Amino acid sequence: MGIVNATPDSFWAKSRFETLERAVSAGRQMFDSGAWAVDIGGESTRPDADPVSVAEELARVIPVVAELVRFGVASVDTRHAEVAEAAVDAGARIVNDVSGKLYEVAGRLGVGYVSMHSHTVPVVAGVYPSYGDVCTDITAFVTDTAHAAVDSGASRVWVDPGIGFGKSPADNVRLLRHLPQLCGGPFPVLLGASRKSFLGAVTGRDVDNRLAASLAVIGPAWSAGVDVIRVHDVPETIDTIAMLNTIWG
Question: Total structural domains in the chain?
């Protein structure tokens, strides 16, 4: 799943596609490179990002969705019901829910749903809540929400532990180590770790230089059985998965 940020302030400057033309071009290139779906967002969830109005988010997202559905599966990355509904009307087939509250919307619309965990949206920089056990707590949350989505009528449901969303670097690593158990649960798993700050905490690299660290996560995720990997760097990810499938598939 490729990432198209129709925003001026997402955490990686090179992933900001502020005009319709740039966003559509980026999404088409991702499809051409082998992405199964493209996830389109109009509100940054980076730490301390300024929230945008629903009207602004709609203006950023809906024209991009309407164009990209001509080339493949479009997903909408949002926390607002109005945006999810309008995106589905424009042809999106997945609601990637960063709020954990839109399962009834996805169910009513009969589309796919990503049950993701986040402590806050947008994330508050440097604020890491305490968990009883981060893996147990987050698995319970995303699984319960996923079941609610199924009960509401969602066509397909994935669970996403929400790497980087209100977790310390150590908690993010614990969640990655827990992927085999999460993948052994009742729902397929979607994972988004691309270029995130915990990779910089491990490697000391800034966001422009985290491609190698991002690709390093794919091996254990693939081995664990993760169903969808959400990334900025589609061609490199496709090549990595191709080699894993060739050697170990």
Answer: 1
What pLDDT is attached to residue 120? 63
Report which residue type is found at 35: A
Please return the burial class of 119, using the count of CB atoms within 10 Å of its CB with bins 0-12, 13-18 and 19+.
middle
- The answer to whether 84 touches 78, Cβ cutoff 8 Å, is yes
pLDDT value, residue 11? 80
Place of tokens 């402590």: 119
174 labelled catalytic: no
Domain with 140 in it: 2-248
230 has catalytic annotation = yes
* Residue 68 structure tokens: 């990209």
CATH number of the domain bearing residue 165:
3.20.20.20
Candidates 174, 196, 205, 210; catalytic one: 196
Q: Which candidate, 224, 217, 177, 220, places its Cα nearest to that of 196?
A: 217
pLDDT tens track for 59-69: 999 999 999 99
To the question of pTM greater than 0.90 for the whole model, the response is yes
Identify the sign of the CA torsion 224, 95, 68, 65: negative
Cα(166)–Cα(127) distance, integer angstroms? 7
pLDDT at 110: 98
Task: Give the three-class secondary structure for 191.
Answer: strand
What does the alpha-carbon distance between residue 75 and residue 131 come to, in Å, rounded to a whole number? 30
Contact present, 171 and 131 (Cβ < 8 Å): yes
pLDDT digits (tens, 9 = 90+) for 119-178: 766 666 677 888 899 999 999 999 999 999 999 999 999 999 999 888 999 999 999 999
